[in-house]
Specification:
The protein has 14 helices and 5 strands. The longest helix has 17 residues, at 33-49. By secondary structure, the protein is mostly helical. The protein has a 3-stranded antiparallel sheet with strand order 1-2-3, with no helix packed on it. A two-stranded antiparallel sheet has the order 4-5. Helix 4 (73-89) runs antiparallel to helix 5 (99-112) and helix 7 (140-154) packs across helix 11.
Length: 323
């Protein structure tokens, strides 16, 4: 076979254009979809400001100076990374490599830095209130939303994971529901991650496995996406819900029961809520880490410390002492 040729699985040779396309696809697959979207958004923002590509360090400096008062240092750092990747991918000199830019970015952080806004953890008790409210409603949408909220919470799913679930990813067993995640943020190679969702108590408010089964049976679904759009006329669509819909559903259900912190909730509230509620219920640290698929102990420990901030508190020890 001549040097430089590439064959298909059937033994025939690929054309030059097919080789280039495969090369492009594999390079693109090395970066997560969310990251690529963030990079594209950053490049569009740079163009809208008046930037041109390729550019030099002086232009990047002016860009940083222009947006230092209005954009967070984390956002600016992402924009620099996007510009760097664009130049490297196009084989141009990287204008962000200059040491002065990184020093400048640190200075912007010290001058304009603010604490990172965190999603509020959703306590189990408030999830149960939402499920109770949904159980009193008729229609497919209430069944879908109840199943989605419960599965996202007890499975500690990211919003992209819960909307990407397919019926073939689910397996019911005597003890509960077994879920195989074909791909996730921490499994970009597609090796597969699993979640076990036990059945709830017969007299309990929540049972995600049963809720999912009720939704699928009522919607008449036997294949394809688990969670789908429902029209105002009650028609269930063929396509999966958009990831952003998870936030919308959560916020609407929280507002319906008049949770005062509803605006502080997001899809990440499920993961934080599972970790903090499970810890308060006496769950083992490793069991919590496994259920959420967290890779780093420090992440889980941070959630646990948040749950215990009033329980294990030096000031509380003093305030509760007898005079």
């Amino acid at each position: 076979m001549p040097a430089g040729t590439v064959r298909r699985s059937d033994g025939t040779l690929l054309t030059d254009s097919e080789v280039q396309e495969r090369h492009r696809q594999f390079l693109a697959a090395a970066t997560a979809d969310n990251t690529r979207r963030a990079y594209r958004s950053a490049i569009r923002h740079f163009y809208a400001w008046g930037g041109v590509l390729p550019c030099d360090t002086a232009m990047v400096t002016r860009y940083l100076l222009n947006y230092a008062p209005s954009l967070s240092p984390r956002t600016l750092a992402l924009r620099l990374t996007a510009l760097s990747q664009w130049h490297r991918f196009q084989n141009f000199a990287d204008p962000t490599e200059h040491p002065e830019l990184r020093t400048m970015l640190r200075g912007i952080g010290r001058t304009h830095g603010k604490p990172k806004k965190k999603a509020k953890a959703l306590p189990l008790e408030d999830l149960e209130r939402m499920i109770a409210a949904l159980s009193g409603q008729d229609g497919l949408m209430a069944l879908r939303n109840s199943a989605l909220l419960q599965l996202a919470f007890f499975g500690a799913f990211r919003r992209s994971e819960v909307v990407s679930l397919q019926l073939q990813d689910l397996r019911w067993e005597p003890a509960g529901l077994h879920i195989t995640l074909m791909r996730s943020k921490t499994d970009q190679e597609g090796l597969g991650l699993t979640r076990a969702i036990p059945y709830g108590a017969t007299d309990g408010m929540c049972c995600p496995a049963s809720a999912v089964k009720r939704w699928l049976q009522a919607a008449g679904l036997s294949s394809g996406p688990v969670f789908r759009r429902i029209t105002r006329w009650g028609h269930v669509g063929d396509d999966a819900l958009h990831a952003g819909s998870v936030n919308t559903i959560l916020e609407a259900c929280a507002a319906a029961i008049q949770l005062p912190y509803a605006p502080e909730l997001s899809s990440h509230s499920f993961r934080r809520g599972l970790a903090t509620s499970a810890h308060l219920a006496g769950a083992n640290f490793l069991d919590i880490k496994r259920q959420g698929g967290w890779r780093h102990d420090g992440t889980v420990q941070g959630y646990i410390e948040e749950a215990d901030q009033f329980k294990h508190n030096a000031a509380g020890s003093l305030l509760k002492r007898k005079p």
